[in-house]
Q: What sequence folds into this?
């Protein structure tokens, strides 16, 4: 909550700074264009971040279920922690070496779902 308050205060200060400049330095039209671009950029950043947060939350739910030994559906495969390992660097499930029928299978976590 405090983070949002600080962000809105900083944005208000930025808009105030733009609009308090003298008209000889920046015309009202240019101030409006700058404000519009700033608002569009902020809207894009907000929606991008909310989309990223949703994906991260989904991935954490899948990973928690995987750690608990539950079955995760990933395309044609049923992923469990006794047959797959999770690689954090690539965010993928990699088949264990001792499972010969799954040799070389790598599945991205984004292609998985858990209900």
A:
């Amino acid at each position: 909550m405090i983070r949002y308050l600080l962000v809105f205060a900083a944005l208000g200060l930025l808009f105030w700074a733009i609009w308090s400049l003298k008209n000889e330095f920046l015309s009202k039209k240019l101030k409006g264009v700058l404000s519009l671009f700033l608002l569009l950029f902020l809207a894009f950043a907000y929606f991008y971040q909310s989309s990223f947060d949703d994906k991260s939350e989904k991935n954490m739910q899948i990973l928690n279920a995987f750690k608990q030994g539950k079955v995760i559906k990933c395309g044609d495969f049923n992923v469990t922690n006794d047959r797959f390992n999770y690689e954090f660097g690539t965010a993928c499930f990699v088949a264990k070496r001792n499972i010969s029928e799954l040799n070389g299978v790598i599945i991205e976590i984004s292609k998985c779902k858990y209900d």
Observations:
- The chain has one domain: 2-113.
